[in-house]
Design goal:
Helix 3 packs parallel to helix 9, helix 6 runs parallel beside helix 7 and helix 12 packs across helix 14. The protein has two domains: 194 residues, Type I PLP-dependent aspartate aminotransferase-like (Major domain) (Aspartate Aminotransferase, domain 2); 135 residues, Aspartate Aminotransferase, domain 1. It starts with a helix and ends with a helix. It is globular. The relative contact order is 0.12. With 392 residues, the protein is α/β, with parallel strands linked by helices.
Length: 392
């Protein structure tokens, strides 16, 4: 019998009997795993034998989440990390080197543009930036210069432009470029039918769904994920097992949430599109949306983000956001709570005025993320805030 000071560091082991499984998988909140022999340890480290050694490389809880996400996206492997931006950054760093060229787009998440235009540029990676609708420009750029990566979004942030995924992937493959699709707005259940090489996701959004945990993922076929694995392990942006558990738990209600949020968003978009204070509503579920036909072809659900342009501009949009009662004025999207981002917070300050116009962002552009509240209550709140915003 060991002494008590030893026992607290080596507690008794509890083995679950065969055929007696927990309904909810346990959280493996441990950094280290051990083997009984040096040979077994070395065989696992070399990949000859399955197993776990150190959390920075893998963990049973995070691995369960990776396999779930891969299946949802229609691929066979995945790597998760501590945030959506971490997934973008680590993937870009792992796939590029000095002298490479990246094709990106004005209609992109601000940190993605920063990583390409600032971080990668410091290491000698060049880029071209076009509009996502400029297929002729994409073709010309790929033909004129060897390109390592084409990174894009659909629907785009913040105004829901729809990328022609089939055309972009076809052009990229014809010129030997890898495609990276930030699929966060569309979710893990959409766009898997296209030959995209890497899917990027912020798990903070729809996967978690409750606004209380951060995470990111890159999903692809196993060989492509294998090319990333050493860099992901050494860059060290690890997802904590407890965060992985919370995201896995969030996925249990993913489809119910996404579909109800999409239905709420459709009703709200229809309401906003007919309001006299609104110049334009950006929601792919609207028949008047320029990408509606393409969205219907590519997507089964149109998402929970509704953006719109107020005729009266930025100060009206400020008053509108401040008058809302059920929408939290904050970043992010995809949570159970409805959120609003007025133009002052949309984060496109790195773009010139001309680039902002090309990207479709107007002085009065507002982005809504629709939650699970009753749609009638949300519409009533939006209408009262629109009325309040028009007052001098």
């Amino acid at each position: 019998m060991v002494k008590k000071t030893t026992r607290v560091n080596h507690p008794p082991s509890v083995q679950i009997p065969e055929g007696n499984r927990p309904v909810v998988a346990p959280i493996y909140q441990t950094v280290k795993f051990e083997f009984e022999t040096v040979d077994d340890t070395l065989r696992t480290l070399s990949g000859e034998k399955p197993g776990f050694f150190y959390q920075r490389s893998s963990n049973p809880t995070t691995r369960a989440l990776e396999l779930t996400l891969a299946e949802l996206q229609g691929r066979d492997d995945c790597l998760v990390c501590a945030s959506g931006v971490g997934a973008i950054a680590q993937t870009l760093l792992a796939l590029t080197k000095q002298g490479d060229h990246v094709l990106c787009f004005l209609e992109s998440y601000g940190p993605t543009r920063y990583l390409i235009r600032r971080t990668l540029a410091r290491f000698g990676v060049s880029h071209s930036m076009l509009s996502i609708a400029d297929l002729d420009g994409i073709a010309r750029t790929l033909a004129a210069q060897p390109t390592r990566l084409v990174i894009f979004e659909s629907p785009t942030n913040p105004i829901n432009r729809i990328a022609d995924i089939a055309a972009i992937t076809r052009l990229a493959r014809a010129h030997g470029a890898l495609t990276l699709l930030d699929n966060t707005f569309a979710g893990m259940h959409q766009h898997g039918q296209y030959p995209v090489d890497y899917y990027l996701h912020s798990l903070t959004k729809f996967a978690s769904g409750h606004g209380d945990v951060m995470g990111g993922a890159v999903i692809a076929q196993a060989a492509l994920i294998g090319a990333l694995r050493p860099d992901f392990s050494n860059l060290g942006g690890v997802l904590d097992p407890h965060a992985a558990f919370l995201i896995q738990r969030g996925l249990k209600t993913y489809f119910a949430r996404y579909r109800l949020q999409s239905a709420n968003a459709q009703r709200i978009a229809e309401c906003l599109s007919g309001h006299p204070a609104v110049e334009r509503t950006h929601y792919p579920g609207l028949a008047a949306h320029p990408g509606h036909a393409l969205a219907r072809e590519q997507m089964s659900d149109f998402g929970a983000v509704v953006s719109f342009d107020l005729r009266a501009g930025a100060q009206c949009a400020r008053r509108f956001a401040e008058a809302l009662q059920l929408f939290a004025m904050t970043a992010s999207l995809g949570a159970t709570d409805s959120l609003v981002m007025p133009p002052q917070l949309l984060g496109s300050r790195d773009l010139s005025e001309q680039q902002q116009r090309q990207s479709g962002i107007a002085a009065g552009t507002v982005r809504l993320s629709i939650g699970l509240e009753d749609a009638d209550d949300l519409i009533e709140d939006l209408q009262q805030a629109l009325a309040a915003a028009q007052l001098p």
